[in-house]
Design a protein that fits this description.
The complex is a heterodimer.
Chain A lengths: L7 H20 L2 H21 L5 H21 L21 H18 L4 H11 L5 H8 L3 H18 L13
Helix pairs in contact in A: 1-2, 1-3, 2-3, 3-5, 5-7, 6-7
Chain B lengths: L10 H15 L4 H12 L8 H8 L3 H19 L14 H10 L1 H39 L4 E7 L8 E9 L2 E7 L8 E9 L2 E8 L4 E7 L4 H24 L15
Antiparallel strand pairs in B: 1-2, 2-3, 3-4, 4-5, 5-6
The chains are: A mainly alpha, B alpha+beta.
């Protein structure tokens, strides 16, 4: 192993929490998140032993995202999306009340369910951007694609998600004059 | 048109952002996070038992394969190698698959080898028998010709040009000859059509400028005249054919390469 590469422990201290949070935001389930992060960190450790890595933050979040999207897809058969359309609750000061908390969780679960319907690239880009809090150039570097491709994938992902969540009715209608 | 302008967020975007916020707002379980990270830190102390750990952690065959794929992919990205498609089941991924196949080093080496062999083959082909094939292609239609059309230029020493002829021969005894004499101010074009059988010959002479058509009907045409009028153009073709066919064995005839086809 290259002596100049960072220590495994320091890598985990620096980037581990964010990787965990990314998986948690994608899955929203404790046991699944634990499994996914363990597997991803094991993958990362093997890579750490094998070759130097330039961007451990991006790599960890990427590995976690891939694992988490796979897990979401496996979950799909047992947790289908409810057929009724998604209702938007206006923001209210009662957000701390139990009803609001439940509604928010339902909202998050529906978003997770919709992510499953995206392509792999769209799901990865969207997750890294929105749940991993990575910038487009960093995502491009991590995935080995161009920044333009990241932007396109993100746009497609958002459009599909809006459609899947039934949000298209909120789009302003264009009038032909 | 300004393509860099940001889209104006609408209600749908706000609703989607609200859903994203709902997913990110839930605090992660700190105790689980700490436990998982501590476990991972302990990995470096147990390198020797990594294989066993892997087997315990990933028991399902598909999951193990996914793990291997993930590590392989991450390594590829770090090494700057092309992205490998994740799943090969959907038509929409065919472009990504193609990009991966084309960008793979093995594909590049294979393509270079195929290109090299193709170029080598073409060079050998032309260097070896290529010229002969081109010459044969050129001669064969002439040898097989049943009709000929050629232009003939009549010159006189000391004079620029006396006349031009366009001759069409269908058989030795059927000839159409169009003669143009540029120096003549009138009747500079004459068209002669001969149809000869044995020692009889019918000849039609057309003069377009003079708006004249003269018909001749000859009987008992002598052999030498017959050769001059009808046979001469066809004999010209026969002569060319014999020269080309026998030219390879004749040391007096020099062949000059026409270059590559």
């Amino acid at each position: 192993m290259d002596s100049s590469s960072p220590n495994w422990e320091s890598i985990l201290r620096t980037h581990g929490p964010m990787a965990f949070d990314t998986a948690w935001r994608l899955l929203g389930h404790v046991a699944d998140t634990e499994d996914v992060v363990q597997e991803a960190l094991l993958d990362a450790f093997q890579l750490h032993e094998r070759q130097p890595v330039g961007n451990w933050g991006g790599l960890l979040r990427h590995l976690v995202t891939r694992r988490a999207v796979d897990r979401l897809r496996k979950r799909r058969s047992t947790m289908p999306l409810p057929p009724e359309r998604f209702r938007i609750e206006p923001a209210s000061p009662e957000s701390e009340q139990p009803e609001s908390v439940v509604a928010e969780r339902e909202l998050a679960d529906r978003l997770r369910g919709a992510i499953v319907a995206l392509t792999d690239r769209e799901a990865e880009v969207f997750s890294l951007r929105c749940f991993g809090e990575m910038a487009n150039p960093d995502i491009a570097k991590t995935l080995g694609i161009s920044a333009d491709a990241v932007g396109v994938a993100l746009h497609k992902a958002r459009t599909k998600l809006k459609e899947l969540l039934g949000l298209q009715e909120f789009e302003p209608r264009r009038s032909i004059s | 048109m300004n393509t860099n302008r940001k889209p104006v967020p609408n209600d749908a975007d706000n609703a989607l952002d609200q859903a994203i916020h709902a997913a990110t707002a839930q605090p992660s379980p700190t105790d689980v996070k700490t436990r998982v990270l501590e476990k991972a830190m302990a990995l470096s102390d147990h390198r020797s038992s990594l294989a066993a750990t892997t087997s315990d952690a990933i028991t399902n065959h598909d999951e193990r394969r996914t793990a291997e794929d993930s590590v392989e992919f991450a390594g590829r990205v770090e090494r700057g190698e092309p992205r490998r498609p994740d799943r090969l089941t959907c038509v929409t991924h065919s472009l990504a698959n193609w990009r991966w196949i084309v960008g793979h080093p093995l594909s590049r080496v294979t393509a270079a080898a195929v290109l090299f062999l193709a170029i080598g083959g073409i060079v050998l082909w032309f260097h070896g028998s290529g010229t002969s094939a081109a010459l044969a292609d050129f001669i064969q239609p002439i040898l097989d010709a049943k009709t000929i059309v050629f232009k003939r230029k009549t010159v006189e020493i000391g004079v620029a040009a006396v006349g031009y002829s366009k001759v069409m021969v269908m058989t030795p005894n059927r000839v159409r000859k169009e003669m143009i004499i540029p120096d003549k101010s009138f009747n500079n074009t004459q068209i002669t059509i001969n149809d000869q059988e044995h020692h009889k010959m019918k000849q039609l002479l057309l003069i377009p400028d003079g708006k004249k058509a003269i018909f001749f009907d000859f009987y008992e045409v002598p052999d030498f005249k017959f050769a001059q009028t009808a046979y001469a153009p066809f004999l010209f073709l026969v002569e060319i054919r014999s020269q080309w066919l026998n030219g390879g064995d004749n040391p007096k005839i020099q062949r000059e390469s026409l270059g590559q086809k």
